[in-house]
Amino acid sequence: MKKEWRKIITYSVVAFGLGCAGVTTINGLEGDQVEAAQTSFVSESANDIEQRLFAQSPRHYVEMEGKVRAYDGKNITILHPIHGEKTFSIASDAIISDRYIKLKKSVLAEVKIFDSEVYRIETERTIETYGTLSSLDNKKITVTVDNVKKEFPKGKFFHLDKDGYRGSVIGMPVSITLDSGFTALNAEIEDDYDDLDDDDHYDD
């Protein structure tokens, strides 16, 4: 279980691949050894850059998960399951990680942004969103974020993980895993509720 309460719009810290010329797509690598070597190299570079950029300006260094609504190579529009659409310009040295799911309209993706420009896009099979649990019934789960309620239909095998918590879950912070249709596949009560601070909430 994740032990940390991330920003409601899943804005957080990550960076990737500055210094690469052009928009690079990690796609179709030939040979297991080549693929493993390049994956290792990219990961190390990302960690180094992440630390440096965050140290420079943490409030200009964010990420967002959602569904791709538009993509043309220069700009990308992401629909967040709670906060709606946002459009970002893509840096000339951005890296696109879409080896398993091709980047296109309607797929899920995570975008990493520094100083208002996207420098990494990674396609995803599922995404997570966060809120305060308002209600739960047989068909849907409802969370509240910034005084706004949002309902998600529950998937067939939906499960709420209480992490051993025995009290009422209403009013507790919760993370929800969503598919591309924004259906809730599962949810998890966050157990560090008392540790929340202002930085854990979305800043526009």
UniProtKB/TrEMBL annotation:
Matching PROSITE patterns: PROKAR_LIPOPROTEIN (PS51257)
Protein name according to UniProt: Lipoprotein
Taxonomic source organism: Schinkia azotoformans LMG 9581
